[in-house]
Design a protein that fits this description.
By secondary structure, this protein is an alpha/beta fold. 39% of the residues lie in helices and 12% in strands. The chain has a 6-stranded mixed beta sheet with strand order 1-3-2-4-6-5.
Length: 222
C-alpha cells in the first residue's frame, strides 16, 4: 500500500475514528445532501515538494467532509488564497476533490489526520499519528521551506523532524508568529493558525498571514 492508502486506512485512535464517523453520519444541516469522507485525511500536493505546510488536523465539516486537507472551511479559504497569491497554487479556492486545484512545488499536511472533538487531539493521539509525518519528512528530500501553522502544528513538526533524523533547527525554536529557524538548507517559518478564532478576533490578519508565504516565496525564488 502507498503512504496515502495506509493513512486513509489507519485505525490507531478509536476516539478520533468514532468521532469522524459520527460527524459523517449526523452531518451539518447545510451539507445533508453530501457524502462525508469520514476517514483519516492524507496530504495534498506534489510528490516532491519544496514547500511543506503543516497544520493541526482536519475540520469536522471541512476536510472530514471533503476528503482534502484544509478544504471546505474558513481555514482552507485563508490558506489556499495565500498559496495562490504567492505562486504555490493555480487557484485561490479549494472546495472539493476534482475542483481543478493544483499545488505548485507544495504539499499540505497535518500533525493529526482525523478531525478531533473541539479541534483538540490528545497527546497520546498526536504521538500515535506522528509516524505518518515522520515518513513524509523522510520522503520529501527537496523541501527547502516548512511553514508550521499554530503551536500544536509547530511542536508536532519539530518532534517529527527530529524523529526523521533531520538536523535540529536553530536557534532553539520557540513558537511565535513570523519566527524563523534554520536546519541546514531548510527554513522553518511559524504562523498563527488561520482558524476562525484567530482571524475573526484579528489575532491573525491577512497581511500577517500572507507575509509568511511572501517570505517563503522569497526564500525559494521564482
Amino acid at each position: 500500500m502507498t503512504l496515502r492508502q495506509r493513512i486513509v486506512a489507519c485505525e490507531r485512535c478509536p476516539r478520533l475514528r468514532a468521532h469522524c464517523r459520527e460527524v459523517a453520519r449526523v452531518k451539518r444541516r447545510a451539507y445533508q445532501d453530501e457524502a462525508y469522507w469520514g476517514r483519516p485525511v492524507p496530504p495534498f500536493g506534489v510528490r516532491s515538494p519544496r514547500l511543506l505546510v503543516v497544520g493541526l488536523a482536519p475540520g469536522a465539516h471541512g476536510a472530514n467532509r471533503t476528503g482534502r486537507i484544509f478544504t471546505g472551511d474558513g481555514s482552507g479559504d485563508w490558506l489556499y488564497r495565500a498559496l495562490h497569491e504567492h505562486g504555490f497554487a493555480n487557484r485561490a479556492e479549494s472546495t472539493r476533490k476534482g475542483d481543478g486545484l493544483k499545488l505548485v512545488d507544495t504539499i499540505v499536511t497535518c500533525v493529526a489526520r482525523c478531525a478531533p472533538p473541539q479541534n483538540r487531539p490528545s497527546a497520546v493521539e498526536l504521538d500515535a499519528c506522528r509516524p505518518w509525518l515522520v515518513e513524509e519528512i523522510r520522503s520529501y528530500r527537496r523541501v527547502a521551506v516548512v511553514v508550521a501553522l499554530g503551536k500544536i502544528g509547530f511542536d508536532g513538526l519539530r518532534r517529527a523532524w527530529a524523529e526523521a533524523g533531520r538536523a535540529p533547527f536553530t536557534p532553539r525554536p520557540a513558537f511565535g508568529h513570523g519566527a524563523q529557524f534554520e536546519s541546514g538548507a531548510v527554513t522553518l517559518l511559524a504562523s498563527y493558525h488561520p482558524s476562525r478564532q484567530n482571524t475573526r478576533t484579528g489575532k491573525l490578519t491577512r497581511a500577517m498571514f500572507h507575509g509568511v508565504f511572501r517570505r517563503a516565496r522569497r526564500i525559494l525564488g521564482a
